[in-house]
Amino acid sequence: MEKIIVQCQGKPYFQGLDDHISEETGGFVDGANLPLNSPARSSPHSQGSEVTERYSRKVFVGGLPPDIDEDEITTSFRRFGPLVVDWPHKAESKSYFPPKGYAFLLFQDEGSVQQLIEACITDEEKLYLCVSSPTIKDKPVQIRPWRLADADFVLDASMPLDPRKTVFVGGVPRPLKAVELAMIMDRLYGGVCYAGIDTDPELKYPKGAGRVAFANQQSYIAAISARFVQLQHGDIDKRVEVKPYVLDDQMCDECQGQRCGGKFAPFFCANVTCLQYYCEHCWATIHSRPGREYHKPLVKEGADRPRAVPFRWC
Ligand SMILES: [Zn+2]
Ligand SMILES: [Zn+2]
Predict the structure, then answer these.
(1) How many Å lie between the centroid of ligand 2 and the Cα of residue 262?
(2) Minimal CB count within 10 Å: which of 19, 60, 129, 162?
């Protein structure tokens, strides 16, 4: 695509783009009726595979005119297909305007996102579309779609993924891709074989957390011992939390289930002298030893988020 400097005012971009879009729309409608086993559906890399799902239906839009309201945002993007406009705490605030100048577009169909991207102009690898508010005409706003392929990255396919050498990374900035998370963690600790960005199951949009699997124990221990890492990449510079990735289907490493009726172990000790799963019985026994009484058990919390719980001695 031709590179265009973002400057919409006074230039007839929309005329040309509209023509382009109506052509694309026709193509898309035809493509959507393809049978499920057609080559266009099954091959994600083929040219013109608009029907292959490539993006989250949730799209970030930033730099909106300050006086644009929800209805005007909807109207600006309605030509790509049915959508709902959302922003953080929208329901509670009852505001008509996105308070921080950004919003999320939740499209009904993934094809709408592809059409929106095609209509955008590109500047320094960022996507822009011109939007008007009552007082500002044709302001370029940034469009940031999430590519589904950016949620996973395998750095070393020869290594098996060991959940016991996997860390949970909390507070991941949302534009961060799995490949970027993998590279940052590999630079800091080495031995990264996989990184994943956690996404919500419905819209497949990043939830702000990720996982990194290491190929060796030393790198894993180095990462969990750090507790926090500074994620630096491009515009991103954020301190994030690193914890062991806690599973809820592991047997107690001390008794292999013999002292707890064969149930999965509820606790994980992230102290480097332990790094084991324990049943309640074995936790109490092992952690009554001198020097271990201050270890804190981690449990798997609902959405893959380990948290420390106060342990009750009984
Ligand atoms: Zn046990
Ligand atoms: Zn311990």
Answers:
(1) 21
(2) 19
pLDDT in tens, 82-123: 999 999 888 887 778 888 889 999 999 999 999 999 999 999
Residue 256 C-alpha from the chain's centroid: 35
DSSP-assigned letter for residue 55? B
- Residue 80 maps to a domain: yes
d(CA 191, CA 159): 10
Say whether both 73 and 102 belong to one domain.
Answer: yes
292 Cα–ligand 2 center, Å:
6
Burial class (CB in 10 A: 0-12, 13-18, 19+), 48: exposed
- Report which bound ligand comes closest to the CA of 255: 1
End residue of a domain, out of 145, 168, 187: 145
Pair (30, 101) in one structural domain = yes
| Residue 87 structural domain | 22-145
Where b means 16+ CB within 10 Å and e means fewer, 214-248 reads bbeeebbbbbbeeeebebeeeeeeeebebbbbbbe
Tokens of 139: 């302001």
The tally of domains found in the chain comes to: 3
What's the pTM value of the predicted model, to 2 decimals?
0.74
Residue 50 has pLDDT above 60, yes or no: no
- Among all ligands shown, which has an atom nearest to the Cα of 286? 2
pLDDT in tens, 242-274: 999 998 899 999 999 999 999 999 999 989 899
